[in-house]
Amino acid sequence: MPVRTYKHIFFDLDKTIWDFDANSTETLRELFSEFELTEKGCPSYEVFHDRYNLHNTALWDAYRENRVTKEELSLQRFLLPLAEFGINDEKLAASISDAYVDRLPLKTKLFPGVFELLEYTFSKYKLHIITNGFAEIQYRKLALSGLDRYFDQVITSEESGFKKPDERIFLHALNCAQALPEESMMIGDDIEVDLLPAKALGLAQVYVNFTKKPHQYQLMHEVSALSEIETLL
Fold it and tell me: Are 79 and 90 contacting, i.e. CB atoms less than 8 angstroms apart?
């Protein structure tokens, strides 16, 4: 394989550099207490969180496949788990949803090595984001976490009109960045959503596999810590 000369690095945001699970868990725990969900019928935060995650994951899969809208996802991910505990209150679910969207970007936990990697790459390459997250939330996350200054282009599914793994969002990102696939690298935590479409288009791929989950895919690179990426450039 010929040695590549990179000019552009595209990052996924959630679960790749911004610690979505930790930040979301903290936000949900606060809202569980503030909305007094134990008193309303939820057995415990842990049980609520488990059911929320189940519905949220299924709804995001449906959203990527255009089977539900952003608005439906935002409401249903709270309405459905609450209903399991006999809380059939759409107004309450909507209030929790609004509070979650407002509160989540205020959490700023990042994965270890994020700033070190960005400082290392910032002066050498053009850095960009490709994300399926809701645009207004993603921009706030970047700003409040101190990440926005590193990125030249931030490509969201809402603004592009396409959701990963649709290759058209990657083509849109390449066009916005004025980048060629052979001089570009995609870094992400989801093989099917982030990396297989990038591979199909000819971008280099870096699978960020923090937990070293086994898989059967053939990818260009795999790391279990962000600090390892410097050695690939």
Answer: yes
Separation CA 155–CA 138 (nearest Å): 10
Look up the pTM and report it: 0.93
The Cα-based distances of 62 to 59, 66, 134 in angstroms read 5, 6, 15
3-class SS at 126?
A: strand
DSSP code of 149?
Answer: G
Look at residues 86, 106, 126 and tell me which one is the last residue of a structural domain: 106
For 79, the enclosing helix (H) or strand (E) is: helix 70-84
Work out how many domains the chain is built from and give that number: 2
Provide long-range contacts, Cβ within 8 A and 24+ apart, for 212-217. Answer: 215/191, 217/191
Q: Tokens representing 77?
A: 């991910």
Domain end call among 69, 85, 106: 106
Nearest to 162 by CA among 64, 72, 62: 64
Contact 166, 193 (CB under 8 A): no
Is residue 4 predicted with pLDDT exceeding 90?
Answer: no
